[in-house]
Amino acid sequence: MRNILILAAGLGLSGCTANPVASVMLPTLGVTSLQKRDTVDALLDTQTQVRINVSLLGVSEPMFTALSTEVYEGQVLVTGTLPTPEDRAEAIRIIWTVPTVRKVIDAIEVGAGEDPGAYLDDMRITAELRGRLLTDGEVRSLNFNIETVRGTVHLMGLAQDDRELERVVYHAARVPGVVRVVSHVYLYDDPLRRRAGEPGSS
């Protein structure tokens, strides 16, 4: 569902624009102003996500609707369920065709389809963790994206330092139903981060 919403915004299905970046620029700017990251990088991530969705949809509508993607500074987290290992490999191949993708985190499951009960439980975990981060005065909650898949919490985003990241992981591990916490979070001063204006950031 998230892919559909982002694609609709990116393609300007409301009739406002056909520019994938321009159509989502204002909301992206609003959120980025509250985060400690470069606006150019945030806009590039939005553009990357739209391009991924367009590419997936162009190859297979069922594949597009079955998958969700999160993009943060060129890292792409892919979740969802596909019928075969070949479908999974094809989805990853398609994502890598987008030039601004720097890393693909493959969390795709192979099986018959998504379990509605597990999906609802994952939504509960994500919502509860988001609430815990919002009430922690030592965590900048807007700097973190949360994706939960069958009890595994994937964290993406930007931590100011090791202490903040440790607090986020601690909160995630304490939410009932969480079986594993996987961090893909960058530290603010991590030299591996993509910086606006550097190679690979435009």
From TrEMBL:
Any Pfam family: BON
Domain BON: 44-112, 121-189
TM ranges: none
Domain of life of the source: Bacteria
Name used for this protein in its record: BON domain-containing protein
Lineage: Bacteria, Pseudomonadati, Pseudomonadota, Alphaproteobacteria, Rhodobacterales
